[in-house]
Amino acid sequence: MTCNGPTKSFTITVQPTPVVNAIANQEICNGSNTTAVSFTGTATGFTWTNDTPSIGLPASGAGNIAAFTAINSSGAPVTATIVVTPQYGACIGTTKSFTIIVDPTPSVNAIGSQVVCNGSNTTLVSFSGTGTSYTWVNDNTTIGLAASGTGNIGAFAAVNIGTSPQVANITVTPVYTGAVVCNGPTKTFSITLTQHRLLQHLPTSLYVTVPAQRVLTSAEQVPATTGPTTQLR
Question: What is the mean pLDDT of the segment spanning 66-84?
Fold first, then answer.
């Protein structure tokens, strides 16, 4: 005969393959805060690695990534690639990656000031530095230069209709434009116009007064002299 003993049972649990949902890329300016990253999906946990810790984010971590101040000390964009791994218990799912691009703080090289005579042309101003463009503002439009503009400042005929020098201060802002617009520290230079030289502004001591002419009366006229003449030999 066959005799059966008490049974025992066990289970086999098949855990799912965890998934992490796609994460949006970010592009920000140097010194700005990133957007906090919250991972979602079917995983019970998430780990990540970062290939460029110089941006201010550690080389690895677990869980969400809090906002942090991005760093780029170079003159070009820096791209960090973050690879995220979803985990469900001991099971690991397919990774997903996203990038954080940190654009540089642009700079503009110093610009020499100018001193120009009224009516003369200024010297062309060509901006240089690490910006992709340059904007400027001018605090004295009477010299013949617009109140603001973008890019280099072409030569123009300087104007000063006054009697004293005119000074225009031009402030230049370097701009780096990627997916976002980053402004750098400004620099200022000046254009000074010497006074307008007009004759009426000469010292009064240089003027000479000429009396008006008048016709002598008959009483004031000198009569002609008559008498013997002497012949010169």
Answer: 97
| 191 DSSP β-pair partners | 114, 168
Residue 211 reports pLDDT greater than 70: no
Q: Give backbone dihedrals phi and psi of 53, rounded to 5 degrees, phi first.
A: -65, -15
Eight-state DSSP code of residue 123: P
> Exposed, middle or buried: residue 194 (CB in 10 Å: 0-12, 13-18, 19+)?
middle
Instruction: Return the pLDDT at 212.
Output: 52
Residue 101 tokens read as 């691009």
Residue 215 has a pLDDT of 52
Model pLDDT, residue 195: 77
DSSP line for 197-213: --GGGS-GGG----PPP
Q: What is the mean pLDDT of residues 145-162?
A: 96
Return all residues near 201 (Cβ < 8 A) that are at least 6 apart.
163
Residue with the two structure tokens 């005929």: 157
Is the pLDDT at 200 greater than 80? The verdict is no
Distances (CA, A) of 169 to 47, 57, 140, 187: 54, 41, 7, 10
Q: Could you give the 3-state DSSP secondary structure of residue 103?
A: strand
The closest alpha carbon to 104, from 33, 56, 175, 188, belongs to: 175
SS3 content of the chain, % helix, strand, coil (to 5): 5, 35, 60
